[in-house]
Amino acid sequence: MILNIVLYLRYTRSPLYSFLFTIPLFIIYEVGLFLSQSDDLAYMRNGADALMRQILSMLGINGFYWIGGIFLVCFIIIYFFQKYSWEDYELNFNYLIIMTLESFFWSYLLYFAMLNMHVILMIPSGSLVMQKVTLAIGAGIYEEMLFRVILIYIFKLIIGSIFDWENYSKVGFSMIIAAAIFSSFHFIGEFGDYFSFNLFMVRFLAGIILGLLYLFRGFGITAWSHSIYDLIILTRITTQ
Fold first, then answer.
1. Angle made by CA atoms 143, 24, 186, in degrees to the nearest 5
2. Contact 219, 18 (CB under 8 A)
3. DSSP letter string over the chain?
4. Which DSSP helix (H) or strand (E) runs through 161?
5. Does position 100 have pLDDT exceeding 90, yes or no?
6. Is the Cβ–Cβ distance between 76 and 198 less than 8 Å?
């Protein structure tokens, strides 16, 4: 029993399981964008998705669906790399079901941890409920990819090149910086919130919690937990 739990915790935080686990979120998000009116598509993109798309545009890679395609190709590369490089390799689809339940657990834990401070962790630019649902799902994928996977890794490299710190210190400090940027990001742009220090600290706390979840449980579960949390808050807002 204990061995099975250890194996579950080890395998499910890997890139392989993150790839498989986030495919449904990715498909729902892209289909939601596709079904939206073409006039809405420009501002329907999740903020992190739009930012990454603008960076690609500056590099000469244009088009609304390039970022989604690159995202998918990167995960396919990771999938085959892990499949053929890990000696201790196991694919158990029952784990994916348990990961879903675990994501609900973490999302509700985040919900209750931020009791009386509930804010949606995305920039809600959509005007229809379906658009807001699409953006909530996109927040789980692209905000976690940008603010956890990419930024923590980049800041870890930068800090490591300057200071001779232990790995956990580099990762921890990188997580704090990424959480601060994550919170600040929601006040930027046409659809951003008006700045409030209290609101900044609430989202900063959420960024710390999600950062810890990413470090200990991997990208897939963190992305799902983020999306589910936003959907919980969105449901609460729309039913009041």
1. 15
2. yes
3. -HHHHHHHHHHHTSHHHHHHHHHHHHHHHHHHHHHS-TTTHHHHS-HHHHHHHHHHHHTT--STTHHHHHHHHHHHHHHHHHHHH-SS----HHHHHHHHHHHHHHHHHHHHHTTT----SS----SSHHHHHHHHHHIIIIIHIIIIIIHHHHHHHHHHHH----HHHHHHHHHHHHHHHHHHHTTSSTTPPPP-HHHHHHHHHHHHHHHHHHHHHHHHHHHHHHHHHHHHHHHHHHT-
4. helix 151-162
5. yes
6. no
pLDDT level of residue 4 (50, 70, 90 thresholds): confident
Q: What are the C-alpha distances in Å from 184 to residues 13, 53, 121, 147, 206?
A: 27, 19, 11, 11, 12
Does the pTM surpass 0.90? The reply is no
> Strands (DSSP E) along 77-137, which ranges?
none
Helices (H) and strands (E) in the chain, counts: 11, 0
Query: Which tokens is 1 given?
Result: 């029993």
Q: Is the pLDDT of residue 59 over 50?
A: no
